[in-house]
Amino acid sequence: MTKTGPVSPDRIRAAFSAAMSAMYREEVPAYGTLMSLVADVNQETLQRDPILEGRLRWTGELSRVSEERHGAIRLGTPAELSTMRRLFAVMGMEPVGYYDLTEAGVPVHSTAFRPVSEDALRRNPFRVFTSLLRLDLIDDPDLRQEAEGLLKARRIFTDRCIALIEHAEARGGLTEEEAAEFVTEALETFRWHSDALVGPDLYQRLHDAHRLVADVVSFRGPHINHLTPRTLDIDAVQDQMPRRGISPKAVVEGPPRRKCPILLRQTSFKALDEAVSFDGHKGQHTARFGEIEARGQALTPKGRALYDRLLTQARDRVRPKPDGSNAADYVAALQESFAAFPDDHEQLRQQGLGYVEFSLTEKAKSLGSSVIDMDVEALIAAGYLRADPITYEDFLPVSAAGIFQSNLGDEAAQDFQASPNRDRFEADLGAKVQDEFELYQSLQDDSLSRCLSTLGKSDI
Ligand code: OOG
Ligand code: NI
């Protein structure tokens, strides 16, 4: 690529993710503390567990782990959502999955913008959980109208940012110089503004409708509300957080601790009470929090159905209380319930529960047509083919609801009619969201075809 040719979207994404991290570290000191704790724990974990280290090295994931993070934003209007899609597209991030949070008492629906190809994920897997507020679920028609008016009038993207998005779309990319400018301009959208758009009375009315409505409608932009590093041992980080002055929520969301991690485990903590000026009146708002995550194997639809069933079973027995008083009982129920989920890599693969990436071992490289009669199982058993878990790159609705709840305040849950509306979301987004299962399936299929064609086998 020449100096003036387009910069790869992967590089823009990596630069943006680093810039976002630097900004957040400055705005939220606890994030810096968390980053150093996570770095320490990850290093210890790799030293303690050479098998894990070897696998991450083999699959090319080792170098991405310490750079890995996700963020979250909440948008107010369809126009904001569709422009955000175009902004993320410049960085090679596409909408994957539809999450309906109304069921959990939060008036939003969401998607995750993330890279989708194997290469792009390896280079930098930065993702942003992006929610759109559902004002249609707010009862008071006057308040709804006022909120709509405020949202319609605000401009969350700089003019230059929009111009650069259009430029990238028209030219198929950005030059080095434009890309640097794009990162700076795009960052502005995610910045915290302590001067609210509303006075104290309206803030209170919005807040009374729902904490989340106040968080979206009262401010100039969709401040990034958390930035989450990936840890290799979430229980160790959870344990050590209090020693560094951070108090996490009582239970880790997602599956229990296992030998073979699956999907996603997450925990969060309240980071800041922000001082806000409401039309010159001093006040407070809690917008931003901290979170850590541990990622495990992506599950097939069959594995996911089993996960959902076992999670529901555990939560029917013990529902974790917001104050943490029954945390131990919940963890015990979870562990008991998940005893029915195989905890062995071979079992997970053979039973079709988890996705894997196939690769040829060193031993296979000296082989020729002698393998022609072997099938996948035989190739694995003979040590020619290996199967490593594919990392889960997405989110979990029950966990996301738990994260929303714990940070909005425990009184925030309200009963909405569960009302998923994916068509509406996609119309507002201006695109279809991709299906996560199809993406994992094709990563798995492509890895197998590559191995087989290297071995000179067209099919198995
Ligand atoms: C998003 C909460 C969901 C996660 O990691 O599941 C989330 C939000 O609070 O805006 O980030
Ligand atoms: Ni999160």
Automatic annotation (TrEMBL):
Question: Does the keyword Oxidoreductase feature in the UniProt annotation?
Answer: yes
What is the official name of this protein in its record? 2-oxoadipate dioxygenase/decarboxylase
Which Gene3D superfamilies does the entry mention? Uncharacterised protein PF07063, DUF1338 (3.10.180.80)
Q: Which residues cross the membrane?
A: none
**To which protein family does this belong?**
Belongs to the 2-oxoadipate dioxygenase/decarboxylase family.
Which domain of life, per UniProt?
Bacteria
Q: What is its EC number?
A: 1.13.11.93
Q: Which cofactor does it need?
A: Fe(2+)
What are the UniProt keywords, alphabetically? Dioxygenase, Iron, Oxidoreductase
Alphabetical list of InterPro entries matching this protein: HGLS, YdcJ_bac-like
